[in-house]
Amino acid sequence: MSDIRSRKILIAVHDWGIEETELTRPLGDLREAGAQVTLASPTSEDVQTVQHDRYPGVTVTPDALLSDVKASDYDLLVVPGGTCNVDHLRINPSAIELAKDFAKEGKPIAAICHGPWLLVNAGVLGGKTLTSCRYIKADVENAGGVHEDRKVVVDDASGWKLITSRKPDDLDAFVNAIEDAL
User: Fold this and answer.
1) Which residues lie closer than 8 Å to 36 by C-beta, 6 or more apart?
2) Cα(134)–Cα(151) distance, rounded to whole angstroms?
3) Residues recognised as catalytic
4) Predicted TM-score of the model (pTM)
5) Residues 158-181: pLDDT tens digits?
6) Are 168 and 80 in contact (CB under 8 A)?
7) Of 59, 73, 87, 111, which alpha carbon lies 20 to 30 A from 38's?
8) d(CA 30, CA 23)
């Protein structure tokens, strides 16, 4: 484990529908710990978070475009949930390639709630053990992943580390696992 202050973390989101705390907690906590965190979205417009997938949350200005960032420039990828966020993110070619590149380069990926949906579409879950919200359990299993219902699951199989969590109530364990992975 190295000093988090020397680490570069990429958070990938769509421009709407990100579960507020699943973005703001990792973004704020990791920045506060000293990591250099970049928020990337398909557009430069502010991203709109939501609370419980329906109520407007805060807006956050992205630092970069998904199409402009490369896995080789970062130490870890974070994929927040939010049903609408990840439903759009998982069909975004830039997001899919990022997830594939992080896995291929052996770099950690952290995904919470619906976040693993991106990894389903990227085709990188074969042989991995993970958790997620219960709504995508079948998708995870159909993609070759082993689903467990736990606060956080860390899996090192297949040459890269996957950190997953189920829901906002698990954010403390999720952020701690990310910090431990660095």
Assistant:
1) 7, 8, 9
2) 12
3) 113
4) 0.98
5) 999 999 999 999 999 999 999 999
6) no
7) 87
8) 11
